[in-house]
Amino acid sequence: MALSYLAFLVVIPLVAICYDAFREGSQVFFSNIFRPSAWAALKLTLWTSAVMALINGVTGTLTAYVLVRYEFFGKSLLNTLVDLPFAIPSLVTGVMLVILYGPEGLLGEFFTGTLHWQILFAPPAIIVALLFINFPVVVRSVQPVLEELDYSQEEAAATLGASPWRTFRQVVLPSIRPAILSGMLLSFARALGEFGAVVIVAGNLPLLSQTAAVYVWGEIESENRLGASAMSVVLLVLSFTLVLVVDYLQRKRGGSHGPR
Amino acid sequence: MALVNPRHGQRPLIKYSLISTVVLYLAWLLGLPLLTLLQSIFELGTAKLTEQLLNYDVFHAFGLTLLLCFLAVLFNTIFGTLLALVMVRQNFRGKSLVNGLLDLPFALSAVVVGYMFILLFGRGGWLEGINAFTGIRWVFSIPGMILVTLFVTFPFMVRELIPLLKEVGTEQEEAARTLGASPWVVFWRITLPNIRWGMLYGMSLTFARALGEFGAVLVVGAGIAGATETATIFVFRAMEERLYAGAYGASLILIAIAFILLFAMEMLKKRRKV
Questions:
Q1: Of the candidates B8, B154, B208, which has its C-beta nearest A9's C-beta?
Q2: Tens digit of pLDDT for each residue in A142-177?
Q3: Which CA distances in Å does B245 have to A203, A251, B52?
Q4: Contact A195 B111 (CB under 8 A)
Q5: Alpha-carbon torsion B100, B149, A225, A16, what sign?
Q6: Which DSSP state fits B108?
Q7: Chain-wide mean pLDDT for chain B?
Q8: Hey, are the CB atoms on A6 and B119 less than 8 Å from each other?
Q9: Best interface-test mutation with A: which of B1, B90, B112 has the largest number of A CBs within 10 A?
Q10: Positive or negative CA dihedral for A88, A91, A92, A98?
Q11: Per-residue confidence at B247, pLDDT binned at 50, 70, 90?
Q12: Residues of B in contact with A216 (CB under 8 A)
């Protein structure tokens, strides 16, 4: 019964959408993907998500390291606040960023008014929104691994005169690398499909700030079914592949925990 | 457990520069947006807020959101627990595929999820006949929105319970069964008490995800004010129509609920570890 619930809820819709995208043959499918507006949306989504994943990999690892290795005032509050982006609706995140980076916002005035650097309705806003939403992913992937790590190796390295940076790079990093990687990939997968936050901060300007998910929405609204189905299948294949890779990485690590 | 090395204070410079980097990053990424929202709400004043928030459409939107959250928690608690039990206790062919499918709603775009259901239940869809058969419209309607909310929130309970059930093991259950307890009694008296904190945690995660869902319910429900508009869809419409007091006020309510959930989850995490 539990399995048929899963089949009904997950498998049938997946099959239906793939069928629909290839309904008129694979040539029509590819021409729908390589249309300028679709191709631009896909490229924009991929590169902004990749930039986010790289930044998130660094800041997430740093945050996890600080939370595990140091004791300081307000640590448990900080640890709780890490999960905040999981709890706040992503659309609300978008609203807050629009205020902050808008023409009258604190940072919008500075960046756009003083530096003439457009943030809102442009790629930088997409990256910031994706960073906000995916912040907990890498932290929560690295933190448990770091906690189980044996401290004595680091001490040995330090005693033998290795600099802190070298100790981190050669002793700590190799053991947490798979966890960082799977966190980055998972945040990348989530970023590819993000809609709520992006649709608000990026607007819906084709070729300029329209991401893949926003493109699908636009195609649904204008009742271009083939276009929507084709892009949906691309997103579907990408996220399914990434999820399987993350699953594989985590199994290799020996952890039984799925991605959060 | 964090291991704290007493000698780690040897390099306080590194320690405090790393901590302040993290705190500053979070202040910029999470803190600043929250503060600007609060400031904007204060600037708008109560007159505008009450005018744009206290009306039928907004009440309806929040009511619908709460209904979706409640149903997501109810259904996914029942079926999520069942599926977790099946995944942990039974071996069957294609189990690893099921495991992969389970994570898909985590990563799949919400818009695509909504679109899949339109394709299925809409005009010319494979399951179009179900509309007439059940006498319920499954697209551009609340039943369809319930269905997609169930889809996107599905993994949370299962993912929460699988490691927990593995850890608990089957010894206690076997002992009870040997002593003549019926399967129902075993579940009610042994299994459930062992996993209840994890279950509550999974329920909070499910609630939070359902609360924030936007893309899927927008596509399936089409966001008609006073009918298929949820709280998040209302915020979106208010932004488009420049009803800023309504948008910011409703955002603040959603954030307040998020904070309550977050601290409830933190308490549950501590209980679960005991």
A1: B154
A2: 999 998 888 888 888 888 888 888 888 888 999 899
A3: 20, 48, 6
A4: yes
A5: positive
A6: S
A7: 88
A8: no
A9: B112
A10: positive
A11: very high
A12: 109, 111-112, 115
The answer on pLDDT for A211 being more than 60 is yes
B3-26 burial string, b = 16+ CB within 10 Å, else e?
Answer: eeeeebeeeeeebeebbeebbebb
Domain ranges of chain A: 2-253
* A-interface mutation test, from B15, B97, B108, most A Cβ less than 10 A away: B108
CB spacing of B119 vs A17 below 8 angstroms: yes
Nearest to B5 among A10, A97, A151 (CB): A151
Q: What is the mean pLDDT of residues B70-90?
A: 92
Chain A, 13 to 52: residues with Cβ < 8 Å from chain B are: 13-14, 16-17, 20
CB contact under 8 Å between A96 and B14, yes or no, is: no
pLDDT, chain A, mean: 88
From chain B, pick out residues whose CB is under 8 angstroms from the CB of A239.
104, 107-109
pLDDT recorded at residue B2: 45
Instruction: State CA B121 to chain mean position distance.
Output: 24
Under a CB-based contact definition with an 8 Å cutoff, are residues A214 and A199 in contact? yes
Residues B200-222 have a mean pLDDT of: 93
Q: Can you tell me the ipTM of this complex?
A: 0.89
Q: Could you tell me the domains of chain B?
A: 53-273 (1.10.3720.10)
Residue with the bigger pLDDT between A151 and A3: it is A151
Chain B within 8 Å of A73 (Cβ-Cβ)? Answer: no
Residue A89 touches chain B, beta carbons under 8 Å: yes
User: What residues in A contact B103, CB-CB < 8 Å?
Assistant: 243, 246-247, 258-259
Per CB-CB distance under 8 Å, the chain A contacts of B37 are 95-96, 99
Pairwise CA distance, residues B30 & B23, whole Å: 10
Task: Measure the CA–CA gap between B144 and B134, rounded to whole angstroms.
Answer: 13
CA B19 distance to own-chain centroid: 31
Express each pLDDT in B98-132 by its tens digit.
777 787 887 889 999 999 888 888 877 777 777 77
Which CATH homologous superfamily contains domain A2-253? MetI-like (1.10.3720.10)
Q: In this predicted structure, what is the pLDDT of residue A258?
A: 41
Confidence of residue B273 (pLDDT cuts 50, 70, 90): low
Question: In the block, which residue shows the tokens 């189980």?
Answer: A148
How many angstroms away from the CA of A33 is the closest CA of chain B? 15
Handedness of CA A8, A248, A196, A82 (dihedral sign): positive
Note whether B37 contacts A90, CB cutoff 8 Å.
no
